[in-house]
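4.2 Preliminary Data

To establish feasibility before requesting continued support, the project team ran the inverse folding procedure on a target of 151 residues. The structure was first converted into the token representation described in Section 3, and no sequence information of any kind was made available to the design step. The complete token record follows.
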């Protein structure tokens, strides 16, 4: 395949992890702490295919983004830095002591905001490899997901 077709080709890497969150002010049960098995489908493209005809080897995404997820999102809490629930401080202190610091978002940890954060981080991590993130589909449950797309 010629490199003229590279811009029309994307690859998708699926990464999964477990985390808990809560959404302050939620009208239903999601205001309480609860967990999910998150699954992210990261779509990337490049200006040209490599010598083997690939956008990038899947291991690049797995190592860069999967490694970041393992360090920051997996088996911890993803919470809002603005959450004033008294127990949040205890969760932060306990996770720090146990070696898995809480990941604090600027906004509330909705699937939409987590997908946007993953899009931002993935873009930074993959840019040195000549790869652009074009979308992140983040599954919070098997039936519910958010789709973030690059501008």
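Position-by-position output of the design step:
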């Amino acid at each position: 395949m010629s490199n003229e077709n590279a811009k029309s080709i994307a690859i998708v890497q699926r990464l999964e992890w477990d985390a808990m969150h809560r959404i302050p002010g939620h009208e239903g049960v999601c205001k309480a702490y609860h967990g999910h098995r998150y699954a992210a489908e990261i779509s990337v493209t490049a200006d040209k295919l490599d010598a083997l005809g690939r956008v990038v080897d899947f291991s690049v995404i797995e190592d860069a983004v999967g490694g970041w997820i393992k360090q920051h999102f997996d088996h911890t809490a993803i919470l809002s830095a603005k959450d004033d629930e008294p127990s949040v401080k205890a969760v932060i202190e306990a996770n720090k002591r146990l070696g898995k610091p809480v990941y604090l978002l600027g906004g509330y940890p909705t699937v939409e905001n987590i997908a946007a954060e993953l899009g931002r981080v993935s873009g930074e991590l993959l840019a040195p490899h000549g790869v652009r993130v074009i979308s992140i589909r983040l599954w919070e449950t098997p039936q519910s997901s958010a789709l973030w797309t690059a501008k």
